[in-house]
Amino acid sequence: MLNCYKHNISETMSVLDFMRSGGIDIKSAVPFDARPFLNQIQSGATIEAVINSFLPQPHADGTPIQPSELPQSLPAYLINVVPQPMIDGQVVATGGAVSLGTAQTLSLSFYDPSASTSVVTHNVTAGNYEAIGLNPGNVSPDQLTAIQNKLAATQAKLQNNDFTNLTKDDLVGDLLNTTAIAYHAELGAMNFITARTMNVNTLTLPSETVFSTQLKVAYAWGAPQTVSPGGLNMDAKRLLSVVKSKDGNADTAKQYALSSGMTSSALEHSVPEQLFSTPDNPAQGISAVKALKIANDQGMPIYTVNQQNIATVMPQLQVDQQTKDDITNAVNAGKTVTVSQGNINFNGWIGCGYIITDPDTGAGAYMISGNLNGADVNLPSMKTITWFVASIVSVVGLFLLGPILGAIFTIAMPFITTAFMKLVSHDYTVSVQDVLLYFTSVVGWTVAGAGALMIIEAGLAASLLGILIMSLMLIPVIAADYIITMSLIIRTYILSLRRV
């Protein structure tokens, strides 16, 4: 799945010259390139043994290992990775070891002699392969030709089964770099045409995008437990330009800014789709404008939220709380927000697109929310503990309230627990998993509670037996939880392989 794209680029010489002149300083607390399978793994026989235990053994007949034989996930808590920024394939710094899947921040500082320093912050995950794409003003034809020649050379070596001196950066880094450079190049070309058509002058200021591989992390009580492939991600947080209408009409410059913003958002999904699709396996990406289009095509209302209607529109929005907070903060700051009434489900990605616009200048932020299947929080081990505690409360309720009220309380508990877990995980959708787990829990808890209630009246020994019976009745509930959850994780993983 190609989602909310974070575009990253490996810098070419033209960008490096600009960086080395002191114009841009990159400071990072996270991996630009944290490779869990190569030399970025913290050294040690124990960690290497853990990695090797998950890798398939070579075939006795010498046939190649197939992608389906590779592990579907890895235990994040057993593997450490080391952040290593790279320029032109050379490591320029090394950070401290962190657990695979740990949330990190990447800060890029842009210095302007005539203005204050601008800091752009990206949220990244330890284990992602991040390519930072810097555009000092334009993408030259020579730069594109150099990238094309390098990719052609790598392709020729692969076709000839010549793997000499090929690195992960040659195979993965160059693809990420190409995607980000192509994004800047296409956006620059389309903005040039739009500017000529609308009779405006425009100058691109130093900008950046990040395009990266993504890990899907499952957490338990805030700590990474397992990681699995999560597709590709592009994030264009700094796309700046100076725009001036040739006839002095400020509204013309505003309309250009709106048009350029829409184009930049559309290219976030279309450029990776172009580069990663094959005739038999087309890649599918999501961006703010695409998410809004899908919602509109499905007949979902699209709202324009401003200070005049925010009080009436906000109660109608069926999106996560973080998105609501973003909308509220933007409108309170005088901005206008375009958002769909609710989330869409696009190839397993659940979320919404929304656009924050400055009504005076047309400048905007094109955002998406949500996550794949909402599964980054709903981890089996965390849910098992939550459901077990809820089951104890349910059975105690049976004892204290009696058969009738106790049965009503027992039936209500799964719903209350499900609602609580979804509130914590900011997931406001109802899936097949929720329905199955709800009814399984109702049956298991009611039978366990009623059986224990009758047995416990016989004395202490029978009480212990009742607790044992209750625990045994919970085994199918826990098993169903694991089976359903893991099946969804596997399904998401298979979808990610098909999409990318």
Describe this structure in words.
The chain is an alpha+beta fold and 500 residues long. The chain is built from 12 helices and 21 strands. It has helices at 13-20, 45-54, 141-159, 168-198, 250-276, 288-297, 310-313, 321-332, 380-401, 403-425, 432-456, 460-499; strands spanning 2-3, 24-28, 74-75, 80-81, 86-87, 90-91, 98-99, 103-110, 118-125, 130-135, 200-204, 207-220, 223-238, 241-245, 302-305, 336-340, 344-346, 349-351, 353-357, 364-368, 371-372. Strands 1, 3, 10, 12 and 13 form a 5-stranded mixed sheet that branches. A 4-stranded antiparallel sheet has the order 15-16-19-20, with helices on both faces. Strand 8 (103-110) and strand 9 (118-125) form a beta hairpin. Helix 9 packs across helix 11, helix 9 (380-401) packs antiparallel against helix 12 (460-499) and helix 11 (432-456) runs antiparallel to helix 12. Mean pLDDT is 75; it is low at 1-43, 371-381 and 495-500.
Dominant shape: globular
Number of helices: 12
Helix/strand/pairing category = alpha+beta
Average the pLDDT over all residues and give the rounded result.
75
Q: What is the subunit arrangement here? A: single chain
Poorly predicted runs:
1-43, 371-381, 495-500
Radius of gyration from the alpha-carbon trace, in angstroms = 26 Å
Q: Main β-sheet: number of strands, strand sense, barrel status?
A: 5 strands, mixed
Q: What is the distance, rounded to the nearest whole angstrom, between the alpha carbons of the first and last residues?
A: 6 Å
Which percent band covers the strand fraction? 15-25%
Total number of strands: 21
Number of domains: 3
Helix content: 40-55%
